[in-house]
Amino acid sequence: MRQAAREGFFEAGQVGIAFRDRFLFVGVDGTARWLPHSAENRAIRHRDWVFDDEAYPERFVKMLQDICGDNEDQIKGLLEFIGVAILGHSTALQRVMVILGSGGNGKSQILDVVENLFEPSERVCVAPQRMGNEYRRYQFVGAAINLINEVAASKMRADASAAFKAIVSGDYIEGRHIREMPVAFRPKAGHIMSANSLWMVEDESDGMFRRLMVLKLNNRFDDSPDRVRDLGKSIVAEEKQAIFDLCVRYGIQALRKGEYTEDTSSVEEVEEWKRSQDP
Predict the structure, then answer these.
(1) What is the DSSP letter of 150?
(2) What is the pLDDT of residues 74-120, one digit of tens each?
(3) Residues 140 and 167: beta-carbon distance below 8 Å
(4) For a disulfide at 232, which of 10, 109, 207, 222, Cβ 3.0-4.6 Å?
(5) 247: left (phi over 0), alpha (psi -120 to 50) or beta
(6) Can you tell me the distance from the alpha carbon of 252 to that of 80, in angstroms, rounded to the nearest whole number?
């Protein structure tokens, strides 16, 4: 017990996931191998099922096809992004996914699914405009995913932008719990944020914008007779294990190639985002 409590004990362990029957180690380059359960793995994430290398969540894939309009690059990029976050390697690829579009286009359904793939202790909700706050930064200790439902349109100040870049890159940052001393740590979380419109930033550097991916959704389902209330929650309740396992496979693929799949509309949106900043 004293060994487990030692500072840095778990950080020095294998990066991966303990499934019911064995431990899946995944390196930052996508190298994957199965290991027997052992205290030496120092696993901090566990899922109580046997990994299925052929899992295919039909309802989830169909939902993504409807939302993305059969844009295979958008779908693949999203699955890769979720998978890399599950595997704990988001800061290796140093990107943030912004799901963009007006209401009624499925953003919340996607986030409902992603939220339920992570344990409460693995997820946080810190808006980019608040990352300059040391108390907010402390929330990233041990977090695997940062999920934001509707980023505010308020301007992102320079201090928040500097913290944002460091957090996304996994640089050493300082955070502090209320009434406690500051601590230095490396954040590991991936970031998926939804927005009706893209916010303004004071930092217009390439270092800021090259970290951004935009998944723009154009379809709307407000008046669709086939619209299902809480569809995402219904799907993840039924297909959680299959969705998780599928995303893990896509995450390994992204790590092996060293980048996410990104469609041309994302590149165009980021360029337009940069041009739209205040002169």
Answers:
(1) S
(2) 999 999 999 999 999 999 999 999 999 887 788 999 999 999 999 99
(3) yes
(4) 109
(5) alpha
(6) 8
